């Protein structure tokens, strides 16, 4: 059977020759697919060592048809399978968006605020001019948009269920960003400040770990995909190498 393969972030650079689809035996699982990918690209890691290969395959998450899937998930003909490096539900919320133009933070807050709110807590993620003492020139953000936006919507719904807040806004920028521009903006409206602070911190921390958005940093001496925060353990199907067959005697 044929399944479609999507690569994002650093995986596109590490596995540049990966075709758009891969052929697997009927009844194959996510683990089988990862085993096949690992074997196919083993030659790449002869230059970087086995540790690099282990780190790659143990850190990715897998989405099948835009939903995270465990290693045991059985694949079907025509499935869309996305391999996601660490990054860096409910009713749709009109304040949740992925955009490519500059984020108007003042307009986001104004659209969210209502008379019953006693507090608006915001997080404004800004492009800084350095990373680990290297001068940053600009950033590029990309996303698995068909999955990222629903995940952001789900986070907004989960925050409203988890904390005594009224509403939230989550806006993430994609594409080319200059130093000083806002990359992600989160606002939480609540009657009381404590719940708004707690929800805002939870939203940005969870977004960074679970929403498939990646950052490429461009420096004076090159460009790299930023190391993302690890996915939660339950989202990363681990590859368990299969024993090699014993040689014929």
TrEMBL record:
Q: Name one GO molecular function term.
A: molybdopterin synthase activity
Keyword terms: Molybdenum cofactor biosynthesis
The EC code for this enzyme is 2.8.1.12
Ranges of biased composition (kind: Pro residues)? 240-249
Can the keyword Magnesium be found in this entry's annotation? no
> In which pathway is this protein known to take part?
Cofactor biosynthesis; molybdopterin biosynthesis
| Reactions listed under catalytic activity | 2 [molybdopterin-synthase sulfur-carrier protein]-C-terminal-Gly-aminoethanethioate + cyclic pyranopterin phosphate + H2O = molybdopterin + 2 [molybdopterin-synthase sulfur-carrier protein]-C-terminal Gly-Gly + 2 H(+)
Annotated spans, Disordered: 229-249
First-tier enzyme category under EC: transferase
CDD domains, sorted: MoaE (cd00756), Ubl_MoaD (cd00754)
Question: Some GO term, biological process aspect, for this entry: which one?
Answer: Mo-molybdopterin cofactor biosynthetic process
What assembly does the database describe for this protein? Heterotetramer of 2 MoaD subunits and 2 MoaE subunits. Also stable as homodimer. The enzyme changes between these two forms during catalysis.
Family assignment from sequence similarity: Belongs to the MoaE family.
* Protein name from the UniProt record: Molybdopterin synthase catalytic subunit
Origin organism is Paracidobacterium acidisoli
């Amino acid at each position: 059977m044929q399944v479609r393969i999507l690569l994002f972030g650093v995986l596109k650079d590490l596995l540049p020759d990966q075709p758009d689809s891969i052929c697997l035996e009927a009844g194959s699982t996510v683990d089988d697919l990862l085993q096949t990918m690992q074997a196919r690209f083993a030659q790449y890691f002869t230059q970087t060592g086995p540790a690099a290969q282990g780190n790659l395959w143990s850190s990715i998450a897998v989405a099948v048809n835009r939903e995270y899937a465990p290693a045991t998930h059985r694949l079907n003909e025509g499935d869309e399978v996305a391999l996601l490096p660490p990054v860096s539900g409910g009713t749709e919320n009109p304040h949740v968006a992925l955009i490519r133009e500059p984020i108007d933070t003042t307009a986001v807050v104004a659209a969210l605020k209502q008379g019953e709110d006693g507090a608006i807590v915001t997080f404004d993620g800004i492009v800084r001019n350095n990373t680990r003492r290297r001068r940053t020139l600009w950033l590029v953000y990309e996303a698995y948009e068909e999955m990222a936006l629903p995940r952001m919507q789900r986070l907004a719904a989960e925050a409203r269920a988890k904390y005594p807040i009224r509403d939230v806004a989550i806006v993430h920028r994609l594409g080319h960003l200059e130093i000083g521009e806002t990359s992600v903006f989160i606002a939480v409206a609540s009657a009381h400040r404590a719940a708004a602070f707690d929800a805002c911190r939870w939203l940005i921390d969870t977004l960074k770990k679970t929403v498939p958005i990646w950052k490429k940093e461009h420096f004076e001496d090159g460009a790299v995909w930023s190391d993302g925060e690890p996915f939660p353990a339950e989202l990363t199907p681990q590859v368990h190498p299969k024993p090699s067959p014993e040689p014929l005697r």
